[in-house]
Each structure stands twice: as structure tokens, then as C-alpha cells.
Amino acid sequence: MPASGMQSPRVVIVGGGFGGLYAAKALSNEAVDVTLLDRKNHHTFQPLLYQVALGVLSPGEVASPLRQILHPARNLRTLLGEVVGIDAAARTVRLSDGEAVAYEYLILAAGARHAYFGRDEWAHHAPGLKTIEDAVGIRSRLLLAFERAERQAHLSGRREPLSFAIIGGGPTGVELAGAIADLARLALAKDFNAINTKQARIRLFEGGPRILSALSEDSSRKAARQLEQLGVEVCTESLVQTVESGRIKVRDEWIATDLTLWASGVAPSLLGKMLGAAMDRSVRVLVEQDLSVPGHREVFVIGYMAALVDANGTPVPGLAAAAMQEGQQAARNILRDLQGRPRESFRYTDRGSMATVGHHRAVAEFGRWHLSGILAWLLWSIVHVFLLIGFRNRAAVMRQWMWAYATRKGGSPLITDCQQPEAARHAK
After folding, report:
1. Domain 10-39+81-115+267-338 sits in which CATH superfamily?
2. Rounded distance, CA 274 to CA 276, Å?
3. Catalytic-role residue among 175, 206, 326, 365
């Protein structure tokens, strides 16, 4: 505890995701001066981003301004800025505009980015889903696919079924595939005249032997069955070889697509490389049991950026739940330092895993308990609403979900950017 008149130790947190936000909240109103740096001015609840992409929820229902979240704390400030350099010796972080921010303690919680396995040119043809901007862009591309099909059918009389491809059978891929099926078969079924949206062909491609590989074989099998009930074609052991505009190559066969979405992989933020620390093969920073970087006890790396086998011998997964716990533990260890107490080793508490599959469909695992169907979906809904930041967000999401469940329709299917069908642009 600093004496009266002395400056409080400066703690800089990079990233306003789950890990950074929970670290900041754990340090609120303590005897430290906390600065949270982020490129965005808001915290995004990423587990519900796919519902923004499908037009069920609006961006404001899954995001909250960081200043509003942290406003009650007297010792917290948020700064908008992109960190482009770290000088561990001088204990400063450098921003893209050339400014530097000094620290006594640094918590790196910059999260993950899209990974195209060395084929970054695929990003333009197969967008991923990590930010609000990604979600809004996907929503526009998705709705434009239906509009173009309607226009073509009306003008030419041709009515070829739409084709959607989702690459990656993890939770995001499964959620996107099920939600697109719901959109085509329920929400938009009565909105178009020249095309039958229910005939849309939706394929989920997974290079491994099963989807949701992080869950048990039982849950994976149940999720695949629920997707198939929605009309989704689950294509396992189907590694995508090439992605181009309007088509993908799988097993040496070209498949035409009206929209391709990427849900196959993520990689940690590149900020970890700036520390010069040891890393694993996934380019995640190898951290000590107290979450600090070897040789730099004042630097903590948490969330998806960190590679750790915890004090219980459990490999810590790159999940939001783990990032929250790590953020709180990093904050506690800083406070323990200032109190002259020994640090604690991090112990991950597994609170279960779940993934939604579609309208009142989901799978969930809690130890030996495996749930599926509407019960798992209700549990998934309760958990996600509870974790949302802010009462207004929770109320808005619950209200929208109740409406969607009662009417089997989502939110407003609005296209909010300037993209138009090629022919329409040339006609002007």
C-alpha cells in the first residue's frame, strides 16, 4: 500500500476482452493506477456475435462501451489505442501514434485473431467472425446472397438453390451452420416470392473425423444429428484445399458457393512475440504458474495468448471462462505483491462446455452430465444472458429471444452497407 502522497503503482492492461475486463474489475478501487488500452472503445460478448451476423441481435445488444463498464471505479481509466511495441526493459508499451505508456505491471490480454494457416488471401472470400465489424459484414453478405438469388429468379426464371459453406466444425462453425439453417427455413421462408429459401444447401466442412472435437464423442454425435435435422450437411474428414470467389475445393472437387464463412482456426495476438519470451508451437507465450512471463515477474499474459498447464496439471483451454479466471488471478497476484504476500498459482475451474446448434437445439457438458436438445438450449441461454455485461443488454437480448422463439423469426434483416449486386451497380 503506497504511503500518503506517493504515486500508486501503474498497471497497464492491454485488451478489453474477457480476460482484460475481469482483471480491471478485480483491481477496481484498489491502491493501483490502472490503464486499460484497447483498439476498440467497447467490450464485445463474442459468444453471441453469430446472432448479430444472422440479424437476430443488434450490435448494441452484444457490446458495451468500456468507459461505461468501468466508470464506477475511481482508479481505472480507458484509453483508445493500438499497442505496436513492448519494451520490457524500460517497462513501456508503445502505441501506433508513437506515444508510450509506462507501467510497473503489465497484463497482456489481447486475445486471438483469425488464422488461415498461411493462406491469408482466403480471408476476402471466406470472412471469419471475431468482431462486431465481422458480424455486420457477414450479415450483409448473407442477406445479399438471398437478394441476388431472388433478383436472378425474377429476371431470368432460374431458381437454383442457394449454397452456403462453413469451414470449421468447432463451436463457431456449428453455431453458424445451425443459425443459417434457421434463417433460411424459418425467418426468411415467407419473405421471398421467386425463390424457396428452404431449399438452400448448407454444408459444414470439418477436416477431422468429427465436429466439436473439444467435447465428447457423445455430444459431437448429438450435435451432428441435430444439424442434420435442420438440413445441414455435416462433411467430416473434408479438408478444404482452396478458397476462391464463389467456390471452394474439397477432396479435389470444386464446390460452388454463394457464401463461404471461415470458422476453422484462430491464432494468438502477435503482441506475445514482442516480449521475446518462449512460445509453444501455436505461438502462445509459455507462462509461469502465477501467469507471469519467465524473467519478467511484472508482466502477465492471460487468455488465448497464454500457454499453461495449471497447478492441478490441467492444460488451460483458450476459452472465455479461462480468460476470466486468469484475469482475476493476475489481478490478485499483483495485489499480493503490493501486500508483501506470496503469489498464488493459477488453478483452472472447468465450469462445463456448451454449443448451440439452432432454434431450441444445443449440446452441453458438465463433468459426467451430457445434455442435448431444448434443455441444453435453455441452459445455454440462461448462462449467456447471465454473463452479458449490463442489465439493459440482458433485458434486450431476452426480449429479442422471446420474440424470435414465439414467432420463429429473427430481428430486422437489414443490409446496412453499400454493397449491391454487380448487375445492379452496372445498370445505374
Report:
1. FAD/NAD(P)-binding domain (3.50.50.60)
2. 6
3. 175
